[in-house]
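Structure (tokenized):
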């Protein structure tokens, strides 16, 4: 078995996707939490409101 580095996996079909976490503030309750910025919509862990990211 050969281990492949994450950077090389991106070029493989079905490879690993880099997850980037960023601290964001919930649009509804203003709780600060870490969100996966590769997603366009995440739920607030405190109030369960959907937070949508554009761009």
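Design, position by position:
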């Amino acid at each position: 078995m050969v281990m492949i580095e994450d950077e090389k996996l991106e070029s493989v079909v079905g490879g690993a996707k880099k997850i980037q976490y960023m601290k964001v503030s919930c649009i509804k309750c203003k709780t600060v939490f870490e969100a996966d910025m590769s997603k366009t919509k995440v739920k607030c862990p405190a109030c369960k409101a959907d937070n949508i990211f554009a761009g």
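Reviewer-requested clarification: Residues 25 and 52 are 11 Å apart (CA to CA). The mean pLDDT is 83.
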